[in-house]
Amino acid sequence: MMTERIAELLLNGQPDAKTQIQGWVRTKRELKDFTFLEINDGSALANLQVVVNTDLADYAEIIKGVNTGSSVEVRGVLAASPAKGQRIELKAEEIQVYGQADLETYPLQKKRHSFEFLREIGHLRGRTNSLGAVFRVRNACSYAIHRFFQERGFMWVHTPIITSSDCEGAGEMFHITTFDLKNVPVTEQNQIDFSQDFFGKPAYLTVSGQLEAEVMAMAFSNVYTFGPTFRAENSNTSRHLAEFWMVEPEMAFCDLAGDMDLAEEFLKYIFKYALETCAADFEFFNQRIDNSVLATAENIINNQFERVTYTEAIKLLQKSGKTFTYPVEWGLDLQSEHERYLAEELFKKPAIVTDYPVEIKAFYMRLNDDGKTVAAMDMLAPKIGEIIGGSQREERLDVLETRIKNQGLDVSDYWWYLDLRRYGTVPHAGFGLGFERLVQFMTGMANIRDVIPFPRAPKSIDF
Ligand code: 4AD
Ligand code: MG
């Protein structure tokens, strides 16, 4: 018999139909004439209730072996359920126990566990309602991202993880090496001799696929990346990971306005798709995690995002009458408290801030005619702060060379990047969405470590 997914049965299963399911026992309730088992296979938030009658062969032995956490296969017949809140249940005719779970040591009980505790048992936390819902939404968003771009003719390109260029120029790269660290070759000046390393020069884990995405956009017009990126910042916050996934579209023949339009359309699309396909999970977040989750989703889908320049944003912050920890002054970067004030308190929806001072942004952003600002855009989300960072890229060879030099970077490292400006250069733009920040925003989860299955952050690398 074919195994069916519980999500499908809960939705469309018909009384009297024979079926077979496989999954993990969430709870067991023994009564006089029968036992109820709640089974979950990860396909849905809800469990399927299995009714086991005492007349089942080997009843006592089977029931003894199916504690919370054990894995089972159940064959039987569906029946309309008299219980409240569930349409259908499964009357067991045959139960096979795959693996028992020791009640004394199994760490998940039928109660609410703290997210801190669940992080300590990361290998089991996908079996809880909350993390199960988060990972299903994460999956739906991943699928929606590909669908959004593929429907619009963007090509998915694979950019390297190992790289020699620091895209953001922020010095937050993880250095990788093939050296035996007990025996690192040094030069006469007592410096590490990278000429002997496998790569012949320093190699790093990428902080962004953007520069390589630009290469591909200069041949395929519209492209996107979706993959892991790394930041060696020792930021122990609820919004930073050392390894996170980024979505980076890059479009040739596109300016900053087109970039912002795409970013807004993109976010609306992902929210809509996730809300439609994971309705029960969203209900759960709204009830149990953050009671503004559904309103936020509706707000994103139905309202235009705010757009302000950095210069306007500074004025708004100065006029706010709020006391901030960090100073607000033209030329200084916006801190998370400023970003959150703008999106959360002032506009009450995502806000796109544009045209930041040249000094605080990366070398590749296009210099505006005022000579003081660049064609950058950051999308700020309520409760999260920066969720997207993007820009129109500098397509003029001479301006770009000067920018690279002014930032103290080595022009020769960027020869191939500069070649794109030598041969058939075009205005182009793109952005990077922090995927975990999106999932955080969507689900209302307070800590970014709880929206990725295996968080990599200071003090979180157990397995
Ligand atoms: O603003 P960032 O640094 O922009 C770039 O890397 C550009 N090269 C993107 C592009 O234009 N193609 O990072 C983009 C987004 C941020 O807005 C944020 O959402 C997320 O990546 N991000 C992080 N997410 C989790 N943990 C971290 N340590 C993050 N650093 C950035
Ligand atoms: Mg940024």
UniProtKB/TrEMBL annotation:
GO cellular component, one term: cytoplasm
Known catalytic reactions: tRNA(Asn) + L-asparagine + ATP = L-asparaginyl-tRNA(Asn) + AMP + diphosphate + H(+)
Signal peptide from the UniProt entry: none
Enzyme class: ligase
Family classification: Belongs to the class-II aminoacyl-tRNA synthetase family.
Family matches, as PANTHER family: ASPARAGINE--TRNA LIGASE, MITOCHONDRIAL-RELATED, ASPARTYL/LYSYL-TRNA SYNTHETASE
Subunit organization: Homodimer.
Protein name (record): Asparagine--tRNA ligase
Source organism of this protein record: Merismopedia glauca CCAP 1448/3
